[in-house]
Specification:
Layout (H helix, E strand, L loop, with lengths): L2 H15 L2 H8 L3 E5 L3 E6 L2 H10 L3 H10 L4 E6 L43 H12 L8 E4 L6 H15 L5 E5 H13 L3 H9 L3 E5 L8 H16 L3 E6 L11 H7 L3 E4 L5 H14 L6 H10 L5 H17 L7 H10 L12 H11 L4 H5 L5 H17 L4 H7 L5 H17 L1 H15 L2
Length: 447
Amino acid sequence: MDNEKFWSQLLEQVQNEVSERDFKSFFKDIELKERTDSNILIEFPNGFTKEWVRDNHTDIFSRIASLIDNTPLTVKTLISKKKKPYVKKTSPVPEINHPKSQLFDNLKPEFTFENFVVGSPNQFSHAAALSVAKQPGMSYNPLFIYSVPGLGKTHLLNAIGNYAKAQKPDINICYVTSEDFTNEMVDALMEKKMAEFRHKYRQIDILLIDDIQFIAGKTSTEEEFFHTFNTLERNQKQVVMTSDLLPNDIPNLESRLRSRFQMGLIADIQPPDKETLVAILLTKAKQENIPLKKDVAFFLADHLSNLDIRRIIGTLNRIAMLASFKERDIIDLPFAKSTLEELNILSLDDINITIEEIIKRVADNFKLSPKDLLSRKRTKNIVFPRQVAMYLSRTITKDSFPEIGKKFGGKDHATVIHACKKIEKDISLDRKIATTIEKLRDNITSP
């Protein structure tokens, strides 16, 4: 078998074993350089890719290669010297003609990589963030992290800054929300201090901007951020952004910004699985000296899985506060159950409602068939009831976004996330919609 066919078969087998995202991000650019009777030499595009494959798929190449050749093969590796992917080849522009001054970074010191609990749902984003922190401006620029609220985007954003600052204390870092960026720009306009504003943001080594989706539709802010981004990127300075939405899903965002958000790496954080959520609860309890037993952590993970991590931690803190008031030395299962009932978070007599039942009840309410809600039809009279059914499935059941998507005809988890956010917004803006959905919830959950 020639080398080309051998490598093609090997990559095909790798693609069957890893996720599509991991294959595209880490495996497709690896090349076979040499092959002998006893070993193969493969070339990684950069050091980070090599480390990631080693840490997450230790023996994948040697195992598959040996199976294809039907003989044990040793894998040798090297890193490409041709180029560094993700590094921009543009020459740095001259520094802005101002003395460089140290900025107030706004970082939250409690958010570090050390206290970020890593599990399969956030492993990819964590690895990308750590790579950026180790070599800012050299890989994944910009880095765009997205997820629904409460899954750790802000934590990772600050962890990047805190790590980089610890390695190089004089580095210029700025963590800012898009809202604060906008307000600061408005103040600068009013006070005729735009030159100072631009100097501040264009001398930064690492710009960490939270909730970037909120600049969409704000013409002046978009314009200013566009030029700031271009200046930093040309000078190989690092930009990291977080968002509740993918760049393509951010409404009213200028196309030129959308394209820049997509030019680096987009990393998502999925809702935590039970094991990761338990680890998060136990880690937080240890940090806060909360006497939480492991079986209670599993109980909370089971019964609070429809909440985001921020709200779950908030619930844990409320349980801990009540335990402190009642002078309890340990939070055991009976106390956790009774406390959740007191807080109206858990009713042990609740009926076990399925997504299928929610779909049927919502379809009946809107005079549709369940098949309509499971279809791909995009007409207005179907889209809204479908979004309502997804929202109620998320808030009533313990199913995750991907699980709900599967029950709705195999839809992507991002579709479910978008539906839930859309209905939450409708509820906050339209009292009639809020009443309709509340009545539906009551009808569904009533015995």
